[in-house]
Amino acid sequence: MAKSSSLPRARISSYPPDTTKDWSSMRLSQGSTHKDRQAAPTTILLHKSRSSQAALVPQEHKLFMEEAYNAAICFKMLRDLSGSDPLRLKYILRKVKTMAHASPSLVLDTIHDFFMDNPQITTRHKFRLFQVLETVIRASDFLEETWEKTFMQLALDNMTMVTELEDVFQDAASNVLVAICKHSWRAVAQHLEAEVLTGNFPHRSFLYVMGTVSSSEKLLSKAEKACWEDLLAQLATKSVPFLNTDMWSKELLKVLTKPERTQQEQPPEKAFLFTFYGLVLQAAESSSTVRTHLRALLETSHQWPKQREGIALTMGLASTHHLDDVWAVLEQFGRSAPMKWSLHSFSPKCSEDFRWKWASSTTLLTYGQMAAKAKDHILPWVDNILSRMIFYFHYSSWDDTLKQSFLAAVLMLMGAVHRNEGAHSYAFAQIPELLDCLMVLMERECPDTLCTPARQQAIHIASSLCKLRPPLDLDQKSRLLSVCLRSVFALPMVEVLEKHTCLYLEPPDPQVLYNKTVGALDQLLQGLLAQTPTAQELHFLLSRMYTWLMSEKAHERQRAVHSCTNLLKFLNQHLTLDPKEELRQMGQLLGMLGILCQDPDKATQHSSLEGVGHLCLLLMRHKAGKAFKLNSGSPKHLLSNGDLKEATEDALGQKPPKDHIFSLGSSQATKETMKHLSKPELTELIWTAIDGLGLPSPFHVQAAAEILLAAIRAHGPTLDTVAKMGRAIHLGLRSVRVPQAKDSVLQAITLMARSHTTELVATFLDFSIPLDSHASRLWRAMGIDVPLSQHVLAILLTVLQERPLPATTGEEGGSQPKDKTYLRSLAAMNTLHELQFAREYRVAVQEAYPELLLALLSQVLYVLQLDLPQEPQPHPGAQENWPSPQSTSLEALKSLLSTTGHWHDFAHLELQGAWELFTTMPTYPQGVGLLARAMVQNHCSQIKAVLDQLLPNLQCKEERERKVALLILMEFLYSPILLEALPTQGALMVLARGLRDPSAEVRVWSLQGLANILFHPEKGSLLLRQLPPFLAGFFQDSEQVVVRVMGTVSDMLHRLGRLGAGTQGLNIAINARSFFDDERDGIRTAAMALFGDLVTAMVGHELGGLRAQVYQSLVSLLLHLKDHCPAVATQAKFAFYRCAVLLRWRLRHTLYCTLAWEQGLSARHFLWSCLMTHSKEEFSVHLGQALCYLHSGHLHIRTWAALFIGYTICYHPQAVSQMVTGVDTSLLLYTFEELKKDPEPAIREFAERQCSFLQKVGARLHP
């Protein structure tokens, strides 16, 4: 243990009373919120006693007691820092720091006393005290000289100590010295200087202090910072003799090459040492000494980024006074064998070779630092440095490291060049070659990601190069613009770019990177125009963006129009074109911007509208400038902005409406701008509809769509060839990419449909197998108006119900395509399925729900009867792998329930997995029965409407309609609403008529319906009396017998209908629950199904003791959701949901969705929270049941139980700790240890936390 130095004692009264804060108010909160504090000693001995004279004056005595009490609190908190509870330590540190901010002198006094009274404190305790001391000193506005010397000596004594905390302890002591620098940096500097100039290499802690002070922006003022840097320079000069000391030099290189724990961050002492080393070499006079040290530095490892940057910085600083020496060393290093190995296809054979892999990156950074540090002497060296950079760029192994080093080096070089006043008169020979490198670099960038500022830096460098001599020729400029525009505009949307950053430990912000990159591109465009402000140059720049303005991708259009608008704005605000020059293709530009004003993207609309305004101003100024030159005969020079403003006002006779143009809407702004176009420019603006919607340009398609809309609006009712026009519009719509154009086309379809609904429906059905997105939008357009949507839906239902069965022949493939009349019905089915999701048809679908339900149920049976040998072939050009008619018919039925608000019925079938019953002929009746039963059990509001619709279907000629109607009616017999639409006698007559039906199935179902309890009330008591013998059958040995008996009891509960199980319900529940954990899968499945049926049957009845059984079943059902048997899991889901309905839980829709589709940890947490929220009184029962399931032999159930208990631990830790035993804790620990290996990260993290808590619980149970 390190021994503390002797410190002079200080009295509590050494600070003025007004600097203390009354902390007595903390006592109550401390005693009430932290129980562990109540166990602490209530008597605290103060280190010093006040003078007895203080008692003579009441006011002084009061102040004395306040100070003494606060000092005692602080002393105790400092003592408690020796604990090991992290939460407790965090609390104490926060309280001490709060006290330090309020009364730093008191805390300093107490810390001093504590060190005096406790010389043998542990290293960790002292480490925490140093942290507190640093905070106190930083919080103090003034530090007395006594404290300054005392704590400075304390820091100096401890910052070089070797302890088990290693560098962390030394850094904590060093930070105290850093904090003292805030008050007296010169005193600290004297100690540092003395240590550095001893002749021995300084300890790392002194370098740490110097590095921290140098890098801190807030510690010293500007003047103090300058003095500090001067001091470092003097210190470097005094350290020059040490360069010739072998021991000092070796120790220096040893520290510089010492590997760090993380190579991504460099400790302050090492970063400072690179700078200090460079300053020492800079101050050295001997060239041989400098070269020797630089060569030795270059021979160290180049593997890590911070090491490379440090080497480059050292050499750059040395080059300030030794440029020739540094250049010579780099040249020699470039010809060395290791450097040659690092070029091109470098393949390291051992780990030692990696130290040379990125040597060329170090060299590039060094050249950049040389340029940055050379200042005024850089110009003669620029071409030489650039040639070396270009060489390493082309001949080094390409990777991100080389790219970043190259860009950083060139940026430093460009910064140095532009800071030199003579740069614009200097011709640089390497500019074309450097531009080639930059274009290659941008082309190599991944086109789908933006994770680094490489693009921005490359464009910024290119922009800087364009300002230098010699100017670029047209080909170079064209290629540069093409590469830059593609590199920026072709990037994916920012939302997509964000997805590529998820693998980064510290992900960059793609939005910030993108904004900076676009800013660099705009700076490049504006710089080129500023250098050559002519109409030809403007046309040259704008023409490179026309392709991007016409892009099919919205975000590319948005970016292009943004840059185009910025260029026009820059031109109007800062430049003036020669009025004698003719502006070229302004009509085309206006057309593009005008169309983009209607772009679906709001940002594109705004930028385009602003661009139209700036284009209008440009045209006005140019036209006014021509008039001014024509009238005044001014010389052929460019007009100034002031002249042009005056010319505009004179030529137009008024002030130009600059603000007015920007306040107009897009259509008005475009029309206003058109007034200033010449005739050829107006010709450029006009688009024709000759080629219609098939033109490749999206803007041309927009114009054609507007013409089409105008024509239909005027002549729609009188059209004769509506069918052909509908087909043509559908084909043309495929090539439309501009959303506004599609809207115009769809508006035209709406106008046509008002007069030709039947013709258009028949036409559109031809390309509705399969139904593509274009056809879908056409159907939606016909449903804009509610009456129109109702008409369309009625026609579709009529077509749907025309269900011819293909004639069976003995020949293979006897049904030819032209005979496939059933395709019309399938097309109507596809369309109805799509329209259920359409907002335009929502009201119509809701109103037609009964007809649609019966029609779609019949359609499912019809498709099964078709038994198509293969799926219908899509028309040419359609996508492949479209869903089969069977799956589409079922999906149409499912979506009808989900989109019209009948999710309760949907949930019953989904949770039972009953949709599969609709996929085969034998099980189809069972599926229809379950759907109708769900409607009855959920008291569906549409039962009466469906009854009104199905009664006529019972006499329909089509057998399938009669079957569907009868199956539904059989279940509706259990609904009290039945008698509102059909009296009992009427129902008997309907079923009796079914006994004479040609279909044997209809006859059988009719006979079953006649046996319903509605017609035989006495059957209720008979069935109830039969229940006890059946319950005894649950305990038979045969699994098959038990399953059948349970199924029979379920069927009896259903047949009892509204009567329910009565008093037998409790016995059924108890017996069924006893089999939830049976080892036989079939019995578990049947027991849970029976329990769910019982719960459903008891809805609306007095529950009595059954309520407790329901609550006690919830944990078992919940845990069996993860049963290894899928059938058990399915029945557990459905029974759990039925229990929730019976108990009237909230958020039942969310619960159903979670049970049906969610699988992750969040779903389990939601289910747990639902259970615990709605059954708080059963907390202990649920927890006890979950603990029992930890003994389950099934891994998934055991895991689910552990998670259940884990959630309970998180939210009810005290209750859990009181209930679990040592055995339970051990079992939980074992289970959570296993869960640490789970493939899901969230579960692993959750298990880690629970293990930590349980270990504490175990320690408390077994101290």
From TrEMBL:
Protein name (database record): Maestro heat-like repeat family member 5
Segments forming domain Maestro-like HEAT-repeats: 555-793
Keyword Repeat: yes
Species assigned in the record: Echinops telfairi
Domain called Maestro/Maestro-like HEAT-repeats: residue spans: 988-1255
UniProt keyword annotations, A-Z: Repeat
Compositionally biased intervals (Polar residues): 22-32
One Pfam family, short name: HEAT_Maestro_2
Domain annotation MROH2B-like HEAT-repeats: ranges: 223-530
Region (Disordered): 1-39
PANTHER family: MAESTRO HEAT-LIKE REPEAT FAMILY MEMBER 5, MAESTRO-RELATED HEAT DOMAIN-CONTAINING
Domain MROH2B-like N-terminal HEAT-repeats: 98-216
